[in-house]
Specification:
InterPro entries: CARME (IPR012901), SAM-dependent_MTases_sf (IPR029063)
Oligomer: single chain
Number of domains: 2
Family: Belongs to the carnosine N-methyltransferase family.
GO biological process, one term: carnosine metabolic process
Largest sheet: 7 strands, mixed
Mean pLDDT: 92
Low-confidence stretches: 362-371
Bound molecules: S-adenosylmethionine
Number of helices: 14
EC number: 2.1.1.22
GO molecular function: carnosine N-methyltransferase activity
CATH class of the largest domain: Alpha Beta
CATH superfamily of the largest domain: Vaccinia Virus protein VP39
């Protein structure tokens, strides 16, 4: 009975995501039309002076249309991506009843920015800051002369659109990305499996950011993707799983390495993430992390969120049982940043490498040294 309910709820959510994707164009155009209406209410002289602004809004509408043109391509394949669960049923009937998710437009917009970060040459600088230190650490920890990299299992929870996991797999490791956001999963499925050639698509990642633009052209910067052809990767070495990291990974001592990038602050209780990472690592396994502590649930109403500082986290990490082998603060990193915006966010991130001891001790030791 419960399973039936779960299946129904999952289907409803999946269809809501599809419907939200489909609503991107109308919702975005409506927002622009509201701005036009706003101009329409101004005194005639203001209207005259703002004629260029009005023209800019028309250009932004064209960009929305271009962004939207990618969505049907992606959705076409979404129904078959979960072992065809949604392709065999009379899905159209249910789709009509599905609701558009209230927070959904933000999520679609985030996917466009994440496409820039993960799969465009415009995102190369960010990837160098964020992914490269992790990749270099993995390469140094598992030198080719000593390890058969194809046997080293690496997990990337919170994989976004999958680029970090893809890069790790491309270097010969067995790598799995995990992601629970269906918006990301649907788009990464398309990019990773169906993009045919380099720079095939053009999107406008920042058209929805109306503030801090010197000119509309800066708002309308486009990104082409994919900057590499993802398909020829050694497929057997690369996979993505869908679902909550805490629920999907329950087998102890399974992974040689867990790599997290801009992820650990995505939990209401970061300690639970740390414990799970510890448990699923093999004895002697490595946890490599890079990112800030922008606790995602911090301001979410009715959410039991904790926001320990990095100092407190370091203590927790040791209490859980890890040995911290490397730690650097002040690592300059950006996240989906428009390089031309007047507002530039840059994180002084932390980068650390922790090892689960090889002695098979369980976690939660009270006799751990306190620093
Ligand atoms: C800030 S993004 C970082 C994405 C990518 N690692 C990067 O650096 O660009 C965090 C990602 O983790 C995902 N995420 C958050 N909590 C998760 C969980 N419990 N299980 C799986 N994925 C999760 C989010 O959906 C989001 O895509």
């Amino acid at each position: 009975m419960d399973t039936e309910k779960n299946v129904r709820e999952e289907r409803e959510y999946f269809l809501s995501v599809i419907k939200t994707f489909k609503s991107y164009r109308d919702q975005s155009i409506k927002k622009i039309e509201n701005k036009e209406k706003c101009v329409g209410t101004l005194p005639n002289e203001h209207k005259k002076w703002l004629s260029k602004y009005y023209e800019d809004l028309q250009k932004l509408k064209e960009c929305v249309e271009k962004n939207y043109s990618f969505i049907p391509l992606v959705l076409q394949h979404a129904y078959t991506m979960f072992d065809n669960v949604y392709s065999n049923m009379d899905i159209v009937k249910f789709e009509e009843e599905a609701r558009i998710l209230s927070e959904g437009l933000d999520k679609v917009q985030s996917v466009f920015k994440q496409l820039m970060r993960d799969w465009s040459s415009l995102g190369a600088a960010e990837r160098k800051q964020c992914y490269e230190p992790i990749i270099q650490e993995i390469l140094a920890s598992y030198p080719e002369e000593e390890y058969d990299r194809g046997e080293i299992q690496i997990l990337v929870p919170g994989a976004g659109l999958g680029r970090l996991a893809f890069e790790i797999a491309s270097r010969g490791f067995k790598c799995q990305g995990n992601e629970f956001n269906l918006f990301m999963l649907i788009v990464s499925f398309y990019v990773l499996n169906l993009c045919q050639k380099v720079d095939e698509y053009e999107i406008y990642p920042w058209i929805h950011q109306y503030c801090n633009n010197i000119s509309v052209e800066d708002q309308m910067i486009s990104a082409r993707f994919p900057d590499v052809k993802p398909m020829p990767s050694p497929k057997s070495n690369f996979s993505m799983t869908a679902g909550d990291f805490l629920e999907v990974y329950t087998t102890n001592d399974e992974w040689h390495c867990v790599a997290t990038c801009f992820f650990i602050d995505c939990a209401p209780n970061v300690v639970q993430f740390i414990e799970t990472i510890y448990d699923i690592l093999k004895p002697g396994g490595l946890w490599i992390n890079l990112g800030p502590l922008l606790y995602h649930y911090s301001d979410v109403k009715n959410e039991k969120s904790i926001e320990p500082s990095f100092k407190v986290l370091c203590d927790v990490i040791k209490k859980v049982g890890f040995k911290m082998e490397k730690c650097a603060t002040g690592v300059k990193t950006k996240y989906c940043q428009n390089p031309y915006s007047m507002l530039q966010y840059e994180y002084d991130s932390v980068f650390f490498v922790c090892r689960k001891p090889d002695n098979g001790l369980a976690n939660g030791h009270d006799d751990m040294e306190d620093h």
